[in-house]
Amino acid sequence: MIPMLDLKLQYRMLQKEIDSAVAEVLSGTQYVQGPNVRRFENEVAKYLQVKHAISCNSGSDALHLAMRACGIGQDDEVITTPFSFAATAEAVAHVGATAVYVDIDPVTLCITAESIEPAISPKTRAILPVHIFGQAADMPGICALARRYGLQVIEDCAQSFGSRLAKQHTGTFGDASCFSFYPSKNLGGCGDGGLFATNSDELAAQFSLLKNHGCETRNRHHAVGWNSRLDELQAVILRIKLKHIDQFNRQRVLAASHYASLLGPLPVQIPRQTDDLSHVYHQYTILSQERTGIIDALQKHQIGHAVYYPIPLPRQKAFSSISRSLDLSNTDRVCRRCISLPIFPEISHSQIETVADTIKQVHAG
Ligand SMILES: Cc1ncc(COP(=O)(O)O)c(C=O)c1O
Q1: Is residue 163 predicted with pLDDT exceeding 80?
Q2: Which of 209, 242, 275 is the last residue of a domain?
């Protein structure tokens, strides 16, 4: 049996350090707004090379409150990708704006400046690209376009912690960015967690207010806010994992290149290969016309797999009436063919070979 991801291995490797840090927090009893939260934020800011890193409850909250901090609301349009998790669409919906979906690039599976430009209207306020599966979108191109039209860029980095383009981290190209520390993410906690990053003092101040009941100082409420704080236990665990994130991501890249060497000759589309961390393989997702056969074979051999994502966001009941879409032919084709295979930093070569052999047999037979 090969799981889709195995969190036990990472916990075992860091168990001593995590257990003793957790015990210290438990006995210290400062569970909310404790010192590890601030330290974690400072460490992430330094790692990403960004001025402000502000933690919150989840990647979903980071996105929603980022929209608010950026002043996006009713009558505004936000151009985004149809090929993402629901939280991307929810963030736009929560502030009453309209999501405008444009097609993805067939190779990177991200939206591009070329697909975005025709969707820009007088109502467009922002672009919300997603670095899907850990693949960095073309941020220089998207930011240049945004500058030309005076639009804000908010990056959804939920799946891309640690990925970079020419040494610059995703999450530092746009006006603001949002990260998730859900346990399965490249930097994953032991519960929910998220983070907002920006170089803007103004956006940082606004986000900080919104995530903590609109409070600047105790008992002074300057805005109607939310309770969206990262807790001290998550912060202390994430601080430990952050020290290893580049190593974890490099291990994912190695696993991906092993997959590529085995699956490359088959009639499937494999993710772009990289050794520069521009793709950090949160998922290893292939495209195949034989998806049903592959799923049956993986199931038979008890090999983990998942279809991310079978339905484009604007074709979901929740979002269809509150969005508009351009031509989404690439997205529709990708949704029919995509299948994600097991990947995690500790996956072994022999596990990858078993997965690849199973897929090979489908094409042989
Ligand atoms: C692309 C994307 N955006 C946002 C989120 C939301 O993050 P969270 O689960 O921390 O709320 C996720 C989580 O799966 C995601 O994959």
Answers
A1: yes
A2: 242
- Residue 39 in any domain: the answer is yes
For residue 234, give both structure tokens.
Answer: 């998550």
C-alpha to C-alpha distance for 334 and 118, rounded to whole angstroms:
21
Cis peptide, bond prior to residue 259, ω within 30 of zero: no
For the Cβ of 156 lying below 6 angstroms from any atom of ligand 1, the answer is yes
CB 71 within 8 A of CB 213: no
Residue closest via CA to ligand 1's atom 10 equals 59
Whether ligand 1 lies within 6 angstroms of the CB of 155 is answered as no
User: 57 and 184 share a domain?
Assistant: yes
Nearest CA to ligand 1 atom 14: 85
Question: How many residues make up the chain in this entry?
Answer: 365
Q: Average pLDDT, stretch 218-238?
A: 96
Evaluate: CB of 137 within 6 angstroms of ligand 1. Answer: no
- Domain membership flag for residue 178: yes
Domain edge (last residue) among 211, 242, 273: 242
Q: pLDDT band for position 282 (50/70/90)?
A: very high
Whether 59 lines ligand 1, by a CB cut-off of 6 Å, is yes
Distance from residue 64's CA to the centre of ligand 1 (Å): 11
Residue 361 CA to ligand 1 centre (angstroms): 34
Q: Flag whether the pTM goes above 0.90.
A: yes
Tell me what the mean pLDDT of segment 141-159 comes to.
98
Q: Is the CB of 76 under 6 A from ligand 1?
A: no
Containing domain of residue 250, as a range? 245-364
Beta-carbon contacts of 107 under 8 Å, excluding residues fewer than 6 positions away, are 272
pLDDT at residue 216, rounded to an integer: 86
